[in-house]
Amino acid sequence: GESVGLHLPTLSVQEGDNSIINCAYSNSASDYFIWYKQESGKGPQFIIDIRSNMDKRQGQRVTVLLNKTVKHLSLQIAATQPGDSAVYFCAENTNDYKLSFGAGTTVTVRA
Amino acid sequence: SQTIHQWPATLVQPVGSPLSLECTVEGTSNPNLYWYRQAAGRGLQLLFYSVGIGQISSEVPQNLSASRPQDRQFILSSKKLLLSDSGFYLCAITIGGNYEQYFGPGTRLTVT
Fold first, then answer.
1. Are B74 and B50 in contact (CB under 8 A)?
2. pLDDT digits over B51-91, tens only?
3. N or C: which end of chain B has fewer CB within 10 A?
């Protein structure tokens, strides 16, 4: 079946640099996408979301980009900090009630 | 704002034993409720969701079951645990028709 997936399972980034986490999705009918951050041993936390009628949305130090032509979603983190080390999941809505999650990208910030 | 409670936080159970995990919600009413399982180093697998009291939708055939006896209570159960049931179990909610899901702190289950 169709599912959300990630290009890279791990990302190592130098503290202070920008991070880019990528996500490919296959359900062209999805109209809502969301990024979560999960720290070790904790539940996922909402970072930012975007609807399919938008190409870009910005939050505090984070930007989500949506390219519907190639079904690609990315999360950019500006000035990455040690506290950004976590697993990042993208998710898409598959119907009114459900989200489909990708496998996740582990981000490690080097001091 | 809403608060999601899950207990226990950790659990070690032998194969063949029963299971009961509980999720309760404070600060909102009529939420949609979800149970996910996360294997080590993996993504989230949706197990069950509920849009109302007594209404349960199952996503994956398995030896687990779910119940929603009250509006803000969601229970995950098994009569006989398997080794493959080990994982991190997460309860989540949505509110007011929004897609964004809020997650609880999770229960770490180890079946030995």
1. yes
2. 999 999 998 878 999 999 999 999 999 999 999 999 999 99
3. N
